[in-house]
Design brief:
globular
Length: 95
């Protein structure tokens, strides 16, 4: 779980360095470091999927994943947050 937490924090720190924040409801007090305007780093399903895998015994260094659109089975691109958070785990397939 430490690796996941570290990866999330690293993405947030990069977002701060790059001056990238959420823009939730146009309220600056709600801004959080993120490469996506409408959601936080830890809001992605990929974060929760990796967390669940770790809780089920998976090891960070042995994990990889692909995102697939559940409607048509086509490989899906990761959001900018996940690209950075899971850079070392990404196994992109062909579209």
């Amino acid at each position: 779980m430490v690796k996941l937490r570290d990866a999330i924090e690293l993405t947030k720190n990069k977002a701060v360095k790059d001056n990238r924040y959420t823009d939730l409801f146009g309220k600056s007090e709600l801004e959080k470091p993120s490469y996506q305007k409408s959601w936080r780093v830890e809001n992605c399903a990929e974060v929760w999927s990796v967390r669940q895998a770790i809780m089920n015994g998976a090891e960070w260094k042995k994990m990889s994943f692909k995102c697939i659109n559940i409607d048509d089975g086509v490989y899906w691109n990761l959001c900018k947050n996940c690209e950075k958070t899971f850079k070392e785990l990404i196994d992109k397939g062909e579209k």
